[in-house]
Amino acid sequence: MTEFEQQLTRALERREPSAGFTSRVLTAASQQQPARPRWQALRWALVLRVAPVMAALLVVVGGALYQRHERVERGEVAKRQLLLAVKIAGAKLHDAQQRVVSIGEIRAAGIEEEQ
Amino acid sequence: MAISAAQKGIADVRSAAMPPFADVVEIHKAMVFSIAWHFLRDRALGEELAQDVFLELHRHWASIKSPEHIVFWLRKVTCNRCIDVVRRRKLRRETSLEESPEPAMLERVQDPLLSAYLQRMVASLPERQRLLVVLRYQEGMEPEEIARMLSMNASTVKTQISRALELLRAKTAQRLKTQREGEGDD
User: Fold this and answer.
1) Cross-chain Cβ contact B29/A37 below 8 Å
2) What is the ipTM of this complex?
3) I want to staple B50 with a disulfide (CB 3.0 to 4.6 A). Which of A11, B6, B32, B171 is the partner?
C-alpha cells in the first residue's frame, strides 16, 4: 500500500454513530413485525397471481357445462314432443282404420241384403 | 423424521454460532454508519440509514446463517441503500472531481486537515467510485471481495479504484503544490 493509500485509509477510518444509537435501534426493532418467511410470501404471490386465472377458468368451464345441460334439456323436450306427436298420429290412424273397417262391414251387409 | 432431526441439528449449530441481535448492532454499528457517512457526508442521514439497515436485518434475522453472513449482508444492504438514497433524493449533484471546488478554508496540509480534505474529495467522486473507495480503504476489502459483493467484474473494480486514486492523487498533489507556492511567496 502506498503512502497516499495509507493516508486515505486514515481519512476513511470508521466512526461511531451518536450515543444511544443501539438503544434506538433495539427499541424500533422491538416494535416491528418480523418479515414473513420467503415461502409464505411466495405462496401469497402465487395465490394472488393464480386466483384471477382460476376464476376465469371457472366461469368458462361453468358456462360450457351450463350450455351442454341446456342442449340436453332441449333435446329431451323435443323427444317428448315427437313421441306425443307420434302417439297422436297413431291414435288418429287407428280411428281412421276403425272407420274404414266399419264402413266396409256396413257395405258388405247391404250387398248381402240386396241379394 | 430423519430430515427434521437434521434440520434441528442445523438450527442448533446456527443458534450456537449466532450472537444476539443487540450484540450485532453494538459490534457493527460503526461499520454500517461509517460506510453511510463517508458515502453521504451527512451525519443525520447516515444514522437514519444505518438504523434502517439494522431494522431490515432484524426483519430478516431468521435467514441469516452465520456471523460472516451478517457482515456480508450488512455491507451489501448498506451499499444498496446508500445508492438508493442518493438516486432517490438527489441529495448530491453529480459533479466530477475536476469540477468540485477547492475547500474554501486556507488549510495547511497536515495530517488531520489532509484527512478532512481527502474525505471531501472522496465524497465528490461519482457514486460507484465513491462506494468502491470506501469499501476498499474504510473496510479494507480486497477488490475480488468487493466485486463478489456488488456483483461486478473484479477487473472493473480494480480499474475504477485506480482511476479514483489517480484523480484523488492528482488533486492532492495540485493542492500541495499550491500550498508550497503560497508558503514560498510568504
Assistant:
1) no
2) 0.72
3) B32
Low-confidence ranges of chain A (pLDDT < 50): none
Q: CATH number, domain at B144? A: 1.10.10.10
Span A37-58, pLDDT tens digits:
677 778 888 888 899 999 999 9
Q: Which of B21, B43, B114 sits opposite A29 (nearest CB)?
A: B21
| Integer angstrom CA distances of residue B52 from A26, A106, B33, B36 | 11, 116, 11, 11
Residue type, B84: D
Chain B residues near residue A27 by CB distance under 8 angstroms:
none
Domain count, chain B: 2
Indicate whether B88 and B102 sit together in one domain. Answer: no
Rounded distance between C-alpha atoms, residue B100 and residue B87, angstroms: 19
Domain that holds residue B54: 1-92
Q: How far is CA A1 from the centre of its chain?
A: 71
* Pair B86, B124 in one domain: no
> Are residue B121 and residue B38 in the same domain, yes or no?
no
